[in-house]
């Protein structure tokens, strides 16, 4: 199970032993209510079950040492709190009817937290994107300076990605918010489909249209894969912060609190530990995808090879992602941004970032693309090797000055050309105003 360091109390409670068994009991009582509506269980017996059915986690664990079966241990423990009406506990159902439906019930609780986490982060990203919409910085491809962009546009890509994550999440969440009360091999031999319908309605789940003894595990694999995609998104965002905080760049910095220590040996260090934490935990979640995929292939109508794995990966994945979303939201909300350093870094390559604009202007005068490229590239190489000023080299070349005026070069070296579509891009992404938290 996830260590407490990476648990938030709200999510940890959902996956606690107490809440798990409470979910099992909720399912068992919902089954009895359905039987009652069908005339099988007397009102008096149902009333006693609803009032008196209870359990103690320690008693269940002690009973399991004898039964070697957790559901049998649970039902026998609950039965000890009842009189003759205990005969209706687990009536007509099999273990996985209860366990899988309870998983759907627990995952629904977890999904409410994750849904809130995602929306909160999306709101923070939108606010920061608006704040830095026009904050010019160098765009990088392959880690190398390319052309100007804005920090707001970088954040806008995060906003769009989180929206896709939300869409995928809603689909996958609905898949696992399912129930099945169909018996030992899914044939409803000992319990009518109406019970399943009523139970799922009470628990706000949807009945799976067909199951074996278990719910189809492709549902859970899709869910884990979706949470892993969200974790991968967070890792991508965190990696950008880690790069931009490097000493050679230092265009952003994670908030560094008074009294915080960056290194046990070097007092000057301020490290992007939050973003590195996100990166590490994303690796754990992505590793769970393989296990979830392996859980799909079960023997015939059911085996329990998936069970032990799911006891780990379902709580751990949801708990870790909940923690990551909360932590990254705080990282972004308190991020220190250095616009002056971003602007200064535009000049690190002595004007080379405007090479494409120069080439295109030469093409517009009638040169072929090949000829224009061959004029510009040698000068770019000279700048790389000798750290000369790119524009000065152009201004010293008659091939260039014969075709481009000083005004043409002023225009080619104006970073604002690259930012003229920013508002349009923001509209396409859907960030048109700053949402309020």
Task: Give your account of this protein's structure.
Residues 350-430 form the Adenylosuccinate lyase C-terminal domain. Its EC number is 4.3.2.2. With 437 residues, this protein is mainly α. It has 2 domains: 94-250 and 271-340, Fumarase C, Chain A, domain 2; 349-429, Fumarase/aspartase (C-terminal domain) (Ribonucleotide Reductase Protein R1, domain 1, Orthogonal Bundle). The protein has helices at residues 9-14, 17-37, 43-52, 57-67, 70-79, 95-131, 151-176, 193-203, 218-244, 273-294, 305-333, 339-344, 355-364, 369-386, 390-395, 398-401, 406-412, 422-429, and strands at residues 136-141, 144-150, 178-179, 206-207, 252-253, 336-337. The chain has a two-stranded antiparallel ribbon with strand order 1-2. It has a two-stranded parallel ribbon with strand order 3-4.
In short:
The protein is mainly alpha-helical and 437 residues long.
Features:
437 residues; mainly alpha; Fumarase C, Chain A, domain 2; Ribonucleotide Reductase Protein R1, domain 1; 2 domains; 62% helix; 5% strand; elongated; Fumarase/histidase_N
Number of separate domains:
2
At the fourth level of CATH, the homologous superfamily of the largest domain is: Fumarase/aspartase (Central domain)
Helical fraction equals 55-70%
Return the CATH architecture of the largest domain.
Up-down Bundle
Summarize the SSE layout with pairings:
Elements: H1 9-14, H2 17-37, H3 43-52, H4 57-67, H5 70-79, H6 95-131, E1 136-141, E2 144-150, H7 151-176, E3 178-179, H8 193-203, E4 206-207, H9 218-244, E5 252-253, H10 273-294, H11 305-333, E6 336-337, H12 339-344, H13 355-364, H14 369-386, H15 390-395, H16 398-401, H17 406-412, H18 422-429
Parallel strand pairs: 3-4
Antiparallel strand pairs: 1-2, 5-6
Helix pairs in contact: 2-3, 2-6, 2-8, 4-5, 6-7, 6-11, 7-9, 7-18, 9-10, 9-11, 10-11, 13-14
């Amino acid at each position: 199970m996830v260590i407490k360091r990476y648990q938030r109390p709200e999510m940890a409670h959902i996956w606690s032993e107490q809440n798990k068994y409470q979910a099992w009991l909720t399912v068992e009582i919902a089954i009895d209510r359905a039987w009652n509506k069908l005339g099988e269980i007397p009102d008096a017996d149902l009333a006693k079950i609803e009032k008196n059915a209870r359990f103690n986690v320690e008693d269940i664990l002690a009973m399991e040492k004898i039964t070697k079966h957790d559901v049998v241990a649970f039902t026998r423990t609950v039965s000890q709190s009842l009189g003759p009406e205990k005969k209706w506990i687990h009536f007509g159902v099999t273990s996985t009817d209860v366990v899988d439906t309870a998983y759907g019930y627990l995952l629904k609780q977890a999904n409410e937290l994750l849904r809130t986490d995602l929306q909160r982060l999306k709101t923070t990203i939108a606010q920061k994107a608006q704040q830095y919409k026009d904050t010019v910085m160098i765009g990088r491809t392959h880690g190398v300076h390319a052309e100007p962009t804005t920090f707001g546009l970088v954040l806008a890509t995060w906003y769009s990605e989180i929206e896709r994550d939300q869409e995928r999440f809603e689909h996958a969440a609905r898949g696992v918010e399912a129930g099945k009360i169909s018996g030992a091999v899914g044939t409803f031999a000992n319990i009518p489909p109406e019970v399943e319908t009523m139970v799922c309605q009470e628990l706000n789940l949807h009945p799976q249209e067909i199951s074996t003894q278990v719910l189809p595990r492709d549902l859970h694999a899709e869910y884990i894969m979706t949470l892993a995609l969200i974790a991968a998104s967070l890792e991508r965002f965190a990696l950008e912060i880690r790069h931009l905080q490097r000493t050679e760049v230092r265009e952003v910095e994670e908030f560094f609190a008074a009294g915080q220590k960056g290194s046990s040996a070097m007092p000057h260090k301020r490290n992007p530990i939050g973003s590195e934490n996100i990166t590490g935990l994303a690796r754990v979640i992505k590793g769970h995808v393989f296990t979830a995929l392996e859980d799909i292939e079960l023997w015939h109508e059911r085996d329990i090879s998936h069970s032990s794995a799911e006891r780990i990966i379902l709580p751990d994945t949801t708990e870790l992602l909940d923690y990551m979303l909360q932590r990254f939201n705080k990282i972004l909300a308190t991020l220190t941004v250095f616009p002056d350093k971003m602007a200064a870094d535009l000049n690190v390559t002595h004007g080379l970032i405007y090479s494409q604009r120069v080439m295109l202007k030469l093409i517009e005068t009638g040169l072929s693309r090949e000829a224009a490229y061959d004029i510009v590239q040698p000068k770019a190489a000279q700048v790389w090797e000798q750290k000369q000023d790119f524009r000065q080299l152009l201004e010293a070349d008659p091939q260039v000055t014969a075709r481009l005026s000083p005004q043409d070069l002023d225009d080619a070296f104006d970073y604002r050309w690259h930012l003229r579509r920013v508002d349009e891009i923001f509209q396409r992404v859907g960030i048109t105003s700053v949402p309020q938290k």
